[in-house]
Write a structure and sequence with these properties.
- The structure holds two protein chains of two kinds.
- By secondary structure, chain A is an alpha+beta fold.
- Helices cover 31% and strands 13% of the residues of chain A.
- Chain A has one domain: 2-Layer Sandwich (Alpha-Beta Plaits).
- In chain A, the strands form four sheets. In chain A, strands 9-2-10 form a three-stranded mixed sheet. Chain A has a two-stranded antiparallel ribbon with strand order 3-4. A two-stranded antiparallel ribbon of chain A has the order 5-6.
- Chain A is elongated, with a radius of gyration of 26 Å.
- By secondary structure, chain B is mostly helical.
- Classes of the chains: A alpha+beta, B mainly alpha.
- Chains A and B meet through β1 of A and α2 and β1 of B.
Amino acid sequence: MMEKSRRDFLKIGGISALGLSALPALSVLAGKKQPAFKLSDKALEGKRWAMVIDMKKCWEKQKKEGCKDCLLACHSIHNVPEIDNPKREIKWIWTEPYENAFPNLEYEYTKEVLKDKPFIVMCNHCSKPPCVRVCPTKATFQRKDGVVMMDFHRCIGCRYCMAACPYGSRSFNWGDPRPYIKKENMEFPTRTKGVVEKCNFCAERLAVGLKPACVEACKAGALVFGDLGDPNSEVSKLLKSNYTIRRKNDLGTEPNIYYII
Amino acid sequence: MKIYDGRKIIPGILIAAVIFSFPFWLNFGKAAVPPKPKLPKEVKNCVEPTTFMRTSHMQLLNEWRDIVVRENFRLFAAPDGKEHLMSLQNGCLKCHESKADFCDQCHNYLDVKPYCWDCHLAPKENK
C-alpha cells in the first residue's frame, strides 16, 4: 500500500479545492439558457444609415401636383399632431426655403434661382450628434447603425437637445398631443405632454424590413435611403456620382442627409 | 375626576368616532368585488408562466421596453418555442384585446395608475 505523505495530501487537497471553485464559473460559461431576444430576420441592418434627397426630382413633382406625400406619410404613421400655432407645432419632416435650410450657402443670387423651391428637411441623424451629447438622461442616443434615436420613456423634457440641434429638428410637446391627431395609427404610440420628439429614421420599420415611410411614399424617387457602410449601396453610388450638399456642414455635426440640387 | 365642559367634549368625541368609522359601518358585511381579468380564449400561454406574469409583468414590461428601444431586439423566443413580438400595442394587446376587461380590472381594484396609456394607444372599445 502506498503511503501518503502530508505533502501529497495537501497537494491533492489544494487541486481539488481549485477544481471546485472553477465549477460555478464553468457552468456559467457552458450555460445555454440565455434570454432569447432577437431581431427579425427580415430587418434591415446597416453600418451607417443615410439618405440622399434629389431636390430636382422633388421640385418637379411639387410644381406639377403640389406633392406632399412624404410629409403626410410620415406624420400619419407616427401619430404626429397637426397644431397650427407655429410656437407649438410638432414636426418630424417638413419643408424649408433654401435660405433657412442652408443659411451659410446663401448669397445675393441664390434667392432668385431657388425661389419657391422648398427643401425637404428632417433630422439629419448626424454622425456626431450634439443632441446626444447634451441629453442628461441619455434619452437621446445613437444606435450602432447611426440612427439618432429617442427613448421617450426617459425624456424629462428639459429641451437641452432642442437648444443643441442646429437644424430645428426637434419639437416639444407643450400639451397633450392627442386632440390634434386626426387619425391615430394604432400600431404606433403617441407622445405625451412634456417630451421632445423628432424623426426616428423609421426605426420601427427598419426592424421589420421596410424602408422609411417618406422614402416609400415618394413617387418621384427623390428620396433614397441606404447604408453608407456599404460601398455598393444606392446612396453610396449617388454620393460618388453627384455633387451633394449637407446642411450646416461647417458645424462639424456630420449630417447623414445629403442633397442633390 | 371632573372634566371641564364634559357635556360638550364627551358627545363630541362620540360624534367624531361615529363619523370616523362611518365608512366601515357603511361597507360592513359587504365584500369588495374582486377583480376579474378576462383572459384570452384561444391562446393559453403568455410569454412567461401565469404566476410570474401576475406578480412581475411590470418589471418585464420595463425590461422589454429598454431592450426594444435601446438594443433594438424586438422578438422574444419563449421557452416553448413560440416567438412573441415585444410590443405593448402590437404584442400584448393582440391577445389581451381589451384594456378595460384585462388591465383595468386589477389596476382599478388596487388603485394603481400606470402611465403606459399616456402614450401607448389602448384599443378602441365600445362603451
